[in-house]
Design goal:
Length: 352
C-alpha cells in the first residue's frame, strides 16, 4: 500500500523542497535577466552614471563656493552650472572658429609622420611591413577623431552630453529626493546603511572629480603656455586636447604625449625635443605634485586596476565607458568596502 501514496508534483508549491528549488531557479533566472538587461541597456546606464558623476562635480563646486559666498545652496548651484555652460560654449565656439582647421592640419601632419617613421623603421630592419604600421597609425588617428569629436565638431556627441548635463543638474538640485526614492524600495532595516553608502560614494566622487579637474586645468594650461613658448605648432589645440584627455588617467597622457611629439618633430628636431620636454615636465608635475595632493590621498585606487578597467570598459562600451571607468571603479570600491565593514560588524557581534 505504501507504493500507492501520491508524491508531490512540480506544481505542488506547498512542498518545502519544491519551494526551495523554485527559489534557487528564480535567483539564477533573475541574475541572467539582470546581466542581459545591463548589456542591452549599457549606453543608457552609462549616461545615468555620467549624470551622477556630473552631479557630484556640481555638488562639489557648490560646496566649495559656499566657503566664500554665504548664499543659498540653489543660488550657488546656479552659479556653478552657469559657469559650466559658459565653459562648454567657449569650447564649442573655439572649436568652430580655430580648432577645427587646426585639427585637419594635425591629421595631415600625423599621417605624414607615421609614413616617415615606418620608412625609417623599415630601413633599420625593425619593421618588415611598413604598410602595416601606416595602417595602424591611420586607425589610431581615426580613433582620435572619435575621441575628440566633441571638441572638433559641433555634431560630436551633443545628445549624450545634453542628457548627462540634464540628469546631473536634476540630481544636484534635489539629491536627497532620489536617495529617498531608492531607499523606499529597500527594507527599513537596510535604509540606514544605504544612506551611509550613498554619502560615502558622493564624497569619494567629489574628491575624485576635484582631483581630475585640477589635473585637467594644470595640464591643459601648462601645455599650452610651454608649447607656445617653444613655438610648437597648434599649441592651443594641443593644450585643449591635453586638458580634456587628462580626464582619462594613464591612457589620456599617452595619447596627448604622442600628439605633442609628432607635431613637434614635424616642425624640426629642436622643437620636437622641446615638445618631449614639455610632456615630461607637465606630467611629472601632475604625477608627483597634483595627483598625490588632491586625488591619491583621498581616493586610493591602484593604477593597474584603473588601467585594466579602462581597457575593459573601453572595449565593451566605447569612449563613454573609457571615460567613466575610473568613477565606476571608485563607486564599486566604496560599496564593497561598506559591505565588508558591515560583514565584519556582524561577525564581531556574533563572536561577542
Amino acid at each position: 500500500m505504501a507504493s500507492d501514496i501520491e508524491e508531490p508534483g512540480p506544481n505542488e508549491l506547498r512542498d518545502p523542497q519544491i519551494r526551495e528549488e523554485l527559489k534557487r531557479a528564480s535567483v539564477w533566472i533573475g541574475l541572467f535577466v539582470l546581466v542581459a538587461l545591463v548589456w542591452l541597456l549599457a549606453q543608457p546606464l552609462l549616461l545615468i552614471v555620467g549624470g551622477i558623476v556630473f552631479a557630484a562635480m556640481l555638488d562639489g563646486g557648490t560646496r566649495l563656493l559656499g566657503r566664500v559666498l554665504p548664499i543659498g545652496r540653489r543660488w550657488r548651484l546656479l552659479i556653478v552650472a552657469l559657469g559650466v555652460v559658459a565653459f562648454l560654449v567657449w569650447i564649442v565656439v573655439l572649436a568652430g572658429t580655430q580648432l577645427a582647421q587646426q585639427f585637419e592640419t594635425m591629421r595631415a601632419i600625423i599621417e605624414q609622420q607615421t609614413v616617415a617613421i615606418s620608412a625609417w623603421a623599415a630601413q633599420l630592419g625593425i619593421l618588415q611591413h611598413p604598410e602595416q604600421f601606416t595602417e595602424i597609425g591611420k586607425q589610431v588617428l581615426g580613433s582620435l577623431g572619435r575621441v575628440t569629436s566633441a571638441v572638433t565638431s559641433m555634431f560630436g556627441a551633443i545628445a549624450s552630453v545634453v542628457m548627462i548635463v540634464v540628469i546631473g543638474v536634476f540630481l544636484a538640485i534635489e539629491p536627497r529626493l532620489y536617495e529617498r526614492g531608492i531607499a523606499w524600495m529597500l527594507p527599513i532595516g537596510n535604509r540606514h546603511r544605504f544612506y551611509g553608502t550613498m554619502s560615502a560614494i558622493g564624497a569619494t566622487l567629489r574628491r575624485l572629480m576635484a582631483g581630475r579637474l585640477v589635473a585637467m586645468f594644470v595640464e591643459g594650461v601648462g601645455t599650452y603656455l610651454l608649447l607656445l613658448a617653444g613655438n610648437v605648432p597648434m599649441a592651443a589645440l594641443l593644450g585643449v586636447l591635453t586638458g580634456l584627455l587628462a580626464f582619462l588617467p594613464n591612457i589620456g597622457a599617452l595619447i596627448s604625449g604622442a600628439l605633442m611629439v609628432l607635431i613637434g618633430f614635424s616642425a624640426g628636431v629642436n622643437i620636437g625635443l622641446w615638445a618631449i620636454g614639455v610632456y615630461l615636465v607637465v606630467h611629472t608635475v601632475d604625477g608627483y605634485l597634483i595627483v598625490p595632493m588632491v586625488a591619491r590621498r583621498s581616493v586610493d585606487l591602484a593604477p593597474a586596476l584603473v588601467l585594466g578597467a579602462q581597457l575593459l570598459f573601453g572595449a565593451l562600451f566605447g569612449i563613454l565607458g573609457l571615460a567613466l571607468a575610473d568613477p565606476i571603479v571608485a563607486m564599486l570600491k566604496v560599496a564593497l568596502e561598506r559591505g565588508s565593514e558591515k560583514a565584519a560588524e556582524r561577525a564581531g557581534a556574533a563572536m561577542a
